[in-house]
Structures are given as C-alpha cells and as structure tokens.
Amino acid sequence: MSFTADRLLLFGATGDLSQRMLLPSLCALHADELIDPGLKIIGTARSDLDDAGFRQFAREALEKYLPANRRGGMASFLNRLSYQPLDATTLEGYEELARKVGPTDKGLAIFLSTAPSLFEPTIKGLQHAGLDGETVRMCLEKPLGIDLASSCEINDAVAGAYPEDRIFRIDHYLGKETVQNLLALRFANIMFEPLWNAAHIDHVQITVGETVGLESRVAYYDDSGALRDMVQNHMLQLLALVAMEPPGQFDATAVRDEKVKVLRSLRKVETGETVTGQYRAGAIGGQAVPGYDEELGQESDTETFVAIKAHVDNWRWKGVPFYLRTGKRLPRRVTEIIVHFRCVPHSIFAGKGATMQPNKLVIGIQPEENITLSLMSKVPGLDREGIRLRQVPLNIALPDAFSGTVRRIAYERLLLDLIEGDQTLFVRRDEVEAQWEWIDAIRMLWADDDLKPKTYTAGSWGPSAAIALAERDGVSWHE
Fold it and tell me: 240: burial class by Cβ within 10 Å (0-12, 13-18, 19+)?
C-alpha cells in the first residue's frame, strides 16, 4: 500500500540521536519544503516534558547541531512538534500516546530508537493502542539484537504487528551520498563493470576509522565491541554494495535481493584471518587520551579494533580477499573503500627501466566525499636514461563537482524515504540475519581459540598483527 505519512512518531525523542541527527534532518527538510506542510511530528520518551518544553529542547539541539544557513523557517518547524511522555515498559501510557498522535488513516511513520530489551514491550504497547494499522510504518534503529537469536526475537516481535513491506530497518551509512554513488559508479559507467571481477581485481580494502573513544556510549559499547557495532551492519553493507551483481532495476526488491546473495556467499572466517585489539593511552591530534581500560574504569576483553580477511565465494569474486578494518582511537576519522586492480600482464616498459604499479580506485565516504582513480603516467623528459612512470591520481571531489548542490545529512534522505515509503536504502530481514550468522561464527571462533584483544597505542592504526594480516599476502593497508 503506497501512502505518504502525515504523522511521524519519534521514540527516544530526547536522546542523543534525536538531538544530533533526527531533529536537524527534519528541520532541514522543512526548510527546503520537502515535507508536506501538514506533517505533524510527535516526540516521546521518558523525559517529563510538555509540548513547549520539547520545542525548547528541539530549538537548543538545532542551534547546536544544524548549520545556521540551514535553519530557515525554524520557528514554523518547531510548531510542527508535540510531545507525550511515556514509560515504554507499561501498557498504560500508550493509549494517551495514541490520542496525542491522532488519526492515522492518512499514514503514520514510527521511528523506534530504543534499547533492544524494549523492542518487544514497545511493539505490544503500540498494538494495544491501535498504532499498528495498515497505514502505519515501523522504522527500527540499531542495534537489532546482539546475535542472530536475539535479532530473530526482535524481528519476530515486530513482524507480529507489521508486515515486512512496512518495516524499515535503518543503516545510516546507506543514506550517505557517496555510498549511493557507489551504485552509480558501478552501474552507470560502462568502463568499470567489465573489470569488476576476480580476473582484474586483486583485493578490496574497507576501512572505517574513528578517532573518538567511548564518549557517552560506555555501557552499550562494552557489551557490543567493534565487531558488532561496526562490522555487522555498516561494513557488511559496504561490502555487499561493492560485491553485488547488477540488479535488474533500482528498486527495493531488486537491490536487496542482490545484496543478500553476497552476504550468503561470505565464507566462514578461519583461525588466523582476524585480529582484535584494544587501545591504550596515547595521543590523537597531539592531545593525550586515556586507554580503553582507563575510560571504562575496569579491565575488559571487549575489542575496540578488528581486522578481518573475508572471502565472497561466488563466480565473480572467488579468490579475491576483502580486507576489513575498523577501530576507535585511530589516527584519523575515515571511511573508505579501496579497490586494488591487478597488474598489467606484461610491461612493455620494463626493458626501459620503468616500474609499474597497479591501478587503484579509492572511494572516500567520510569525512571527504571523493573518488580517486590512480593511473600510470609517463614522467615528462627525453628518456635518455630510461622511461620513468609514476602513479597519477585522477580526482573527483564530489563537493566540487556538484558545488551548487546541498550536501545533506544521511538521515535526511532516510527519514524522507520513510515518510514516503521507499525501502530501497533500508535493510531487509534476511539481510540482517545473514549478517548476524556470519558475525556469530566469528565470535564463536574467537571463543574456541580463546582469542583476546591485543593492545595498541591510541593514535596508531591498531595492533601490529593487523599489518601482518595483510602483509603476509603481499598487501599493504591504504593509509
């Protein structure tokens, strides 16, 4: 059933995600007149606020996190907002919430950002209050469980109230412009797809580096770790987009069908194909920072860094390793995909003393959005002492290429798609479960091998074993 919702219900409306991303994204969409003037936004959380209190809370969040040039019409945006306090664990408050929401016959979109333990009681409460009709969509923010079993439990609870075509599982990386542009790069340009296979690609690297430590996520992160926090969702989605076959068309079913095929083709990781680490005191950007154990206030076996050598066992990618690396307190904040092509089969310049390097495609996702293709070029000169070749970057800086276009927060696109009902950039249940199945096997391997995180100094690129993981295959991490 196709409809554009005229009501948006935000659970966790006074939380960090709401302040940093949801309210700024919605205000920006409002300023650009991309959401219907009649859309009402209702916030709910434990905080004891009234409408005026929530609007003041939202104003402060917007002034802090939304650039001044994108706050057009902020006063009229705030007038869209209302608020209803709720204890999600008891049924009593949901009927009052439903009254605050009002009629849902034209469409209600619910954004559920809550602890995994609250998913089931929240769904029961929404059902109890009648907020589960045919014109209601449910959007789920991670974490969707801590393993396959808990994920299935959450998905079963949600599926008891909402069918799959009205469930939107969010992964905000899919809302990033460069991630979407990866599909355009592959499937809108004829020169790449014929080379996008094991015959021409030597290996692929995916790096997600963070300079921050625990910040305000102490309890969650120590229960989760880098593998479940980053690899299970963001990094496997990036891998799937790199490795997927061309879909028949750009729609939710076709795109997600191809991603699932990749995730189901992931080979189980073996002993020696992963490295885990935990940062110790060091320096980031010249500033001293404490170690993980110091921030946590106790010792822990939780990994803050993980590197994995992964394989996609299908016709296109057999024999091509995918090196995944993510961690906290690394030297710089970066998310990038590096596609290393194979060397030319024969160098006609070798007899002239020239050395060759393979072509390399670097897709920068954050903080800079850019695409760089490294090409071999002749160094100018008369070549009396031999030909010299050098790698030259062909840069496409997306902000420069599209200088007149507004660069949007990832959640702007995803919230708009939720309101309008487009699931293309959201994750389907079978994707989530395929991801968890692979991750659970890694965690079981770690338990069987009694693998403990190796320490690394904050400000470095992780344990030295991570360098060795790639270098024993003759590969160097892209720095």
Answer: buried
**Residue 190 φ/ψ, nearest 5 degrees:** -75, -20
Q: What are residue 372's phi and psi, to 5 degrees?
A: -125, 125
By CB atoms closer than 10 A (0-12, 13-18, 19+), residue 387 is: middle
Do 72 and 148 fall into the same domain? yes
Q: How far apart are CA 290 and CA 280, in angstroms?
A: 7
For residues 51 and 53, what is the distance between their CA atoms, to the nearest angstrom?
A: 5
Q: What is the mean pLDDT of residues 339-344?
A: 93
Least trusted range by pLDDT, from 225-234, 296-305, 373-382: 373-382
Cβ neighbours of residue 140 closer than 8 Å, sequence gap 6 or more: 112, 119, 154, 158, 167, 168, 169, 170
Q: Partners of 312 in the beta sheet?
A: 266
Based on the domain organization, do 284 and 146 belong to the same domain?
no
Domain of residue 452 covers 174-412+420-471
Q: Name the residues annotated as catalytic.
A: 234
pTM over 0.90: yes
pLDDT tens track for 112-129: 988 778 888 999 999 999
Q: What is the CA radius of gyration of the chain?
A: 24
